[in-house]
Design a protein that fits this description.
Layout (H helix, E strand, L loop, with lengths): L1 H25 L1 E9 L10 E4 L5 E3 L5 E6 L3 E6 L6 E5 L5 E5 L10 H6 L2 H15 L2 E4 L4 E4 L1 H5 L1 H23 L4 H7 L7 H8 L3 H6 L2 H18 L1
Parallel strand pairs: 1-7
Antiparallel strand pairs: 1-4, 2-3, 2-5, 5-6, 8-9
Length: 232
């Protein structure tokens, strides 16, 4: 009887420890820095809100913030003079958010496109689609309408060029949601400084990522690492 009591007590203690460790593993502190998009200057007094918990903090003098959260949380960023934006926290790393000034038209390039949050990226994609669309199909206005200014004009060409860049960036982000630094580090001896180059050289296709099982992706990374080692 005494042994049974001790066993029940031990099992209870183990259960408490397991629950505590699960809670601890789920609890995280999200850390980040907020910048102005084009100048990269850090912005102070930006209100950062976790939309799941409604917790709010303000960035400090260096544009830095930290608040409680976990993977898959959405963060909202508000500051007078800047467009409100949201960012998806999907990887354990320092969040870097770049805000756009109000009434500011940005010129997209390869550097700036990587700094856009996912929500801002989608906004810019829709904008580029509208500005680059040379043919409009409308039943209300008599079927096809061709816009020569959009087809041959500088603005239309620039918008279509932007669209290609924006769509490629969105595709790469969808791939990198699963092709993560953590997964690569767990399967290869690559260092933190080597992983970005490996990801760039051996990023799989979106079609593969959407169809592959976790085991398929693991095998892909192991095979890609063998090729990476041979080439370097």
């Amino acid at each position: 009887m005494k042994k049974d009591y001790k066993l029940i007590k031990l099992l209870g203690l183990l259960t408490v420890l397991m629950i505590g460790s699960i809670s601890y593993s789920n609890a995280q502190t999200i850390k980040g820095i907020v910048h102005e998009l084009e100048s990269s200057q850090r912005i102070r007094s930006v209100t950062v809100k976790n939309l799941r918990t409604n917790q709010e903090v303000d960035t400090d003098q260096e544009g830095q913030f930290q608040l409680d959260g976990k993977i898959n949380d959405y963060l909202e960023f508000k500051s007078p003079g800047y467009q409100t934006d949201t960012a998806f926290y999907y990887e354990e790393a320092i969040v870097r958010v770049y805000l756009i000034r109000e009434d500011n038209t940005i010129v997209i390039n390869e550097v700036l496109v990587t700094r856009l949050t996912d929500s801002r990226l989608n906004v810019e994609i829709e904008k580029a689609k509208r500005e680059g669309q040379a043919i409009d199909v409308s039943q209300q206005q008599g079927g096809f309408r061709l816009s020569p200014s959009r087809l041959f004009g500088k603005k239309g060409k620039h918008a279509r060029s932007n669209l290609d860049l924006l769509l490629l960036e969105r595709e790469n982000r969808m791939i990198d949601r699963k092709f993560t630094n953590q997964l690569i580090a767990s399967l290869t001896p690559l260092t933190e400084t080597e992983i970005p180059l490996f990801r760039e050289l051996h990023r799989p296709t979106l079609d593969f990522i959407q169809k592959a099982s976790p085991q398929d992706l693991q095998l892909y990374i192991i095979d890609a690492y063998k090729k990476y080692k041979e080439d370097n």
